[in-house]
Amino acid sequence: MGKRIYPLNKIKYWYCYDINDICDLYQEFDLSDRTIFSWIRKGLSKIDDKRPFLIRGYDLKNFLGNMNKSNKCQTKFDQMFCMSCKDARNFYQNQIAIEMKNNFLSVKAICRTCKGVMNKSYKLDDFGDLKRKFNMVEKLQLSDCKTLLLKTDLQIQEKINLKQLNLIDLIDEKEK
Ligand SMILES: [Zn+2]
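^ thats the input. predicted complex w/ zinc ion below
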């Protein structure tokens, strides 16, 4: 995950781009379809759900502008760049969800200000520090945190607590 800066002047405001067009636009970065799909998941708007997906130059410019800002923004260890707030933010309830990738950690947290989901890559070596500083939770629990607070169902709560202790496998066994 390099700190890429996407030149925005390549994007024509009123053009519509499909996935391949975008890959061609930034040949120097050797983008794959998967990268573009991950942008869509992160909030890049497409015109509609019809395939092939089309993206307005305007939206692409906006999205990559934010991405550039995020890549330029030096966030502290305990902060991430929030795409909605367009600034570095602390983590809601000090919670993070870690996903182990090949050579880095993909970490998600909820923005304390707008409660939106934030992403950041950490080095594998950071795992110990992350574990010490934050509450590690399941990804599902993290994205669900707004509704979770409203749930009073003790069983759900109990299950989540057990999940945190990595005992979920045992429960799943019992439930089968
Ligand atoms: Zn935010």
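Helices lie at 19-25, 33-41, 57-72, 127-133, 139-143, 145-148, 154-164, 168-175.
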